[in-house]
Amino acid sequence: MRVIPNRKPTFLVLLILACCSLPLLIKAQEKSPAKKRVGEGIWHEYPAAQVSRGRIQFRKTCGFCHGPNANGGSVGPDLMSSAVVRDDHHGNLIGKVIRTGFPGKGMPHFNLSSAQIMDIVAFLRYRLNEVDLRSPERVSANYALSKLLVGNAKAGKAFFNGAGKCSSCHSLTGDLKGIAKKIPPAELQADLLYPSNAHATATVTTSSGRQYTGRIRLLTRYDVAIVDSAGWYRSWPRHSVKVQVHDPLAAHRKLLFKFTDTEMHNVFAYLETLK
To answer: What's the CA angle centered on 241, arms 235 and 244, to 5 degrees?
Structure first.
């Protein structure tokens, strides 16, 4: 006859230990930060409610320049490729830009509360994670030159001075002097096609004949707004004024439809010789 030992005491001890450990496990999980796993979707670095508030605040404060989703607008650059956004840590970089602006580049400062700024930070970081999830192979500014330098510099120089008519606007002793030392290769290649530091301006003539010139902040069928050299924001209904636009990128836009891949790589190779 087999004797079956009484396991009730052992079972009770295990049950008590499990009940005591469960609250500690739950608390530890609540404290540990959420991490993105492959296939799990967008990493929520900040609470969803804060991201939603930030989306609204961003569109009210920044969307007219940088676009409603921070991908760039009519006059503002794409913030998804901005080092300020990518290197930000809990608002240390984004907050500074919002509070001080970039006066020399036409960006004003904004008097927002710390909470409003952090809402914008939450939205921008969410958008960054969203964009990177869709484009995981995004090229960084430090992308190896050897992988980009596939063109012929001599052919690029010929195109620059000939068919491309680049030399009619750009100077090797002026704006392009030492350009290869000033701008990382990946950024230079992008700027070759569509310069990020060139901004459209407009001269607005009122019904009284008075003229105002400044960087375009808004230009639609119904409204025009500029920031003049003194930093004043001025706007008018489009039907009440005459508007003359000065677009330094007009030639680049036309060239985009003519550039072949070979020509683009050749010109880039030539620009990389300008050290």
So the answer is: 90
The alpha helices in the chain, defined as continuous H runs, are 8-31, 48-61, 63-66, 83-86, 94-100, 114-134, 145-148, 153-161, 179-182, 185-193, 250-256, 261-271
Contacts for 86 with CB less than 8 Å, ≥ 6 apart:
128
> Helix, strand, or coil here: 186?
helix
- The angle, 0 to 180 degrees and rounded to 10, between the axes of the packed helices 48-61 and 114-134 is 100
Helix (H, G, I), strand (E, B) or coil at 269: helix
Which residues, 6+ apart, have CB-to-CB distance to 270 below 8 Å? 151, 153, 154, 156, 157, 159, 160
**Separation CA 58–CA 50 (nearest Å):** 12
Tokens encoding 64: 């007219």
Tokens encoding 60: 């009210």
Per-residue model confidence as pLDDT tens digits over 146-177: 777 889 999 999 999 999 989 988 999 998 99
The conformation of residue 255, written as its DSSP 8-state character, comes to H
Q: What are phi and psi of 218, to 5 degrees?
A: -155, 135
User: Domain boundaries in the chain?
Assistant: 48-134, 145-196+252-271, 201-247
Name the more confident of 25 and 249: 249
Nearest in space to 59 (alpha carbons), one of 109, 124, 114, 104: 124
* CATH placement of domain 201-247: 2.30.30.100
Burial 229-264 (b: 16+ CB within 10 A, else e): eeeeeeebeeeebeeeeeeeeeebeebeeebeeebb
The class (CATH top level) of 48-134 is mainly alpha
Spatial contact of 202 and 245, defined as CB atoms under 8 Å apart: yes
- pTM strictly above 0.85: no
The tokens of 212 are what? 């105002």
